[in-house]
């Protein structure tokens, strides 16, 4: 199931048969939760925020935890300007099928996809209470993956916290232009939606308790999405710093798989600027990851002592780069070393992939390292000779660019579980 419309949505009469048909759909992915890792090509999203406090002890009727639970059960945490949920509130939450209406371009462009509630949790232990569910994308969805929404109350302090854990990757698109559009603006809408989820849940439970547990509209199909004008524009929440501040997030991690071709190229570019930076980054990432290794190169780079050695060599290169006696990077030996390091880092970044893909990644990394070596050598020479930029300032600017590129290519993500 996937449809799109411009400037209009779907009526209840149109949604009812589509919801019925969606109940027969299967998941559009096969990976288990433990297999949905960044290394395996799955993007990761994690965020936590405090909703507030109620009386210590187990949740009380009409307390903060109970109201938040009602909001989750009717999917009203989802901002209707981005995603509206169409469902049957009388069906059990576990296994409930939902048709999602995805909106973009100021709600002018809309897509219809389906998901299903895969698992539910409701536990009341001695120290905390937990409620939540996961949804899983179904056949025809423009994404593949699973997302957990969890409430957790501490019985000792009475604090109620909300957690989101997601693993996703692009799915099926109805045409080429929608895939391109998702690549260009999709992440901004996803970021805004996750942050608005925290903001809406807080606003509904604290300031609109009368709406908790009630669908926004009811008919042949029930709908989420009470209007909350106080939240402000969607684009504000898409901005990194202001959006995070407005959402009052305590933790937020976005680790996006850049693609099997872009990461190797980026590592090659890094190697062309600072030859040891690329293998040091990959080695550090491998050492931090619990994933098993099979090929000898990734096994060697993942040993705990290897990142430390490479980090020392990287620091030594940063110092040596600024010495007047250091040979130009475009000479045969330095350039060969940069190409080799770029190829090694690129190949190891796709460890676990088929051999042909690793060979292609190595080739891309080596070529990118060669191009980067000449490009940044020429840029530094131009800056210092024509524009009279001090050599030390140009070198430090290049160091900063290497650090920025490293943070974008292979972000480190702490493994967090959905367990209480």
Description of the molecule:
This protein has helices at 12-22, 64-73, 176-207, 234-238, 240-247, 262-273, 277-288, 296-301, 305-320, 332-349, 355-385, 391-409, and strands spanning 3-6, 43-53, 83-87, 97-104, 109-124, 128-137, 143-154, 159-170, 222-223, 251-255. It is elongated and about 75 Å long. Mean pLDDT is 90; it is low at 412-420. The longest helix is centred in the middle third of the chain and has 32 residues, at 176-207. It is 43% helix and 20% strand. The chain is built from 12 helices and 10 strands. Helix 6 runs antiparallel to helix 12 and helix 10 crosses helix 11 (355-385). With 420 residues, it is of the alpha+beta class. Strand 5 and strand 6 form a beta hairpin. Strands 1, 2, 3, 4, 5, 6, 7, 8, 9 and 10 form a 10-stranded antiparallel β-sheet that branches.
